[in-house]
Design brief:
Shape: elongated
Radius of gyration: 22 Å
Protein name: proton-translocating NAD(P)(+) transhydrogenase
Bound molecules: nicotinamide-adenine-dinucleotide
Largest sheet: 7 strands, mixed
Number of strands: 17
Distance between the termini: 24 Å
Structural class: alpha/beta
Strand content: 15-25%
InterPro entries: Ala_DH/PNT_CS2, AlaDH/PNT_N, AlaDH/PNT_NAD(H)-bd, NAD(P)-bd_dom_sf
Family: Belongs to the AlaDH/PNT family.
Keywords: NAD, NADP, Nucleotide-binding, Translocase
EC number: 7.1.1.1
Length: 365
């Protein structure tokens, strides 16, 4: 079969779904690989490296779309390109199709077998394919660097002839994959770090990274290792305690999310108003509406001396390593589909059956 890698079309997207290294491994699975010229450019993988790895580098996206039995992408191609894919083509990437009618229709009308990797069940076996985790790691890391960059303070403690500087206090809200990487990164920069999450098991994880668990008296473990949404009473209690605590915090990184729902609103305008001037909020949940009421997605604003940043697609800012990890995740998933150069779907494998989109009818064979 032929596997195609197209240049990403989403604005600002620098990542690529296959690297020269993974192309070499795809070729070893017996596949022919076609890469659109410049597909790796945003992540500093030149065309020549793909060619050396055994890919054909082709200028024309259309030709690849029509040829390839499998298309690898970071974000879903736009609907017009999807319409031009081969009938029955396989599409693998972080596709975020839910709610996008034009793409959904294109996929249905072309009989495309889509595997949005964000739908993978988060089992141990799926970890090697888990793009949410690999990309969240980069996002959490970059979020702390942005906080440090925007802050008018040092993060580490300094003892100098001009006096002693106390370390910044950083609070990370949401200690999933991104939050734990944020905690580790802020610690490496020398800040005093606290972490908070509604899943009680995060206490140990935060402490193992040298952070302090901020106990706000709310615990809301949900299904599948994720958080559930809070009740109104729980949210009110969390907010009262948090508001008091934030007065002493220099930088906040928020990463809280509940699958399939808008980001929980955790930091209100009143809480921001209570923070010291020169404090910073970096809201990693900006893409899904923000954990902070004042976040403007894609912008950095200053409100009464408090800087609130809502960066988007932070993983793309670390495109080299983010692409290397994404491409390995994709390769590991494609290895379930392609053997000896042929595609076969083993629908008894839950990683395929639960990931495929549109969802398979439970009654179908
Ligand atoms: P996520 O992006 O859905 O959420 C980020 C964090 O926000 C979560 O830790 C969640 O508990 C927290 N959160 C939600 N509401 C909150 C609130 N009101 N206040 C504070 N925090 C709130 O989560 P994620 O990072 O993708 O992963 C969630 C968990 O799943 C992680 O702990 C991770 O270890 C686990 N996971 C397991 C596997 C596996 O192999 N089995 C793979 C990936 C992730």
């Amino acid at each position: 079969c032929t596997i195609g890698v197209l240049r990403e079309t989403a604005p600002g997207e620098r990542r690529v779904a296959a690297t020269p290294d993974t192309v070499r491994r795809l070729v070893a699975l017996g596949a022919r690989v076609q890469v659109q010229s410049g597909a790796g450019g945003g992540a500093h993988f030149p065309d020549a490296a793909y060619a050396d790895a055994g890919a054909s580098v082709i200028d024309d996206a259309e030709a690849i779309a029509q040829n390839a039995a499998v298309i690898l992408c970071v974000q879903a191609p736009d609907a017009s390109l999807l319409q031009r894919l081969r009938e029955g083509a396989v599409l693998v990437g972080h596709l975020a199709l839910g709610g996008d009618d034009a793409r959904g229709e294109a996929i249905a009308s072309r009989g495309i077998v889509a595997f949005p990797l964000e739908r993978l069940p988060r089992t141990t076996r799926a970890q090697a394919m888990d793009v949410l985790s690999s990309q969240a790691g980069m996002a959490g890391y970059k979020a702390v660097l942005i906080a440090a960059q925007l802050a008018p303070r040092f993060f580490p403690m300094l003892t100098t002839a001009a006096g002693t500087i106390r370390p910044s206090k950083v609070l990370v809200i949401g200690a999933g994959v991104a939050g734990l990487q944020a905690i580790a990164t802020a610690r490496r920069l020398g800040a005093q770090v606290e972490g908070f999450d509604v899943r009680p098991e995060t206490r140990e994880q935060i402490e193992s990274l040298g952070g302090r668990f901020l106990d706000l008296g709310v615990s809301a473990a949900g299904e599948g290792g994720y958080a559930r949404a809070l009740t109104d009473d729980e949210r009110a209690e969390q907010q009262r305690r948090l508001g008091e605590h934030l007065r002493g915090i220099d930088a906040i990184v928020t990463t809280a999310a509940v699958p399939g729902r808008p980001a929980p609103r955790i930091i209100t305008a009143a809480m921001v108003a209570g923070m010291r001037p020169g404090s910073v909020v970096v809201d990693l949940a900006a893409e899904t509406g923000g954990n902070c009421e004042l976040t403007r997605p894609g912008e950095t604003v200053e409100i009464d001396g408090v800087i609130v940043a809502g960066p988007l697609n932070l993983a793309s800012q670390g495109a080299v390593h983010a692409s290397e990890m994404f491409a390995r995740n994709v390769l590991n998933f494609v290895s379930l589909l392609v053997a000896d150069g042929r595609i076969a779907f083993d629908w008894n494998d839950e990683l395929l059956a639960k990931t495929v989109w549109p969802p398979r009818d439970a009654a179908s064979p």
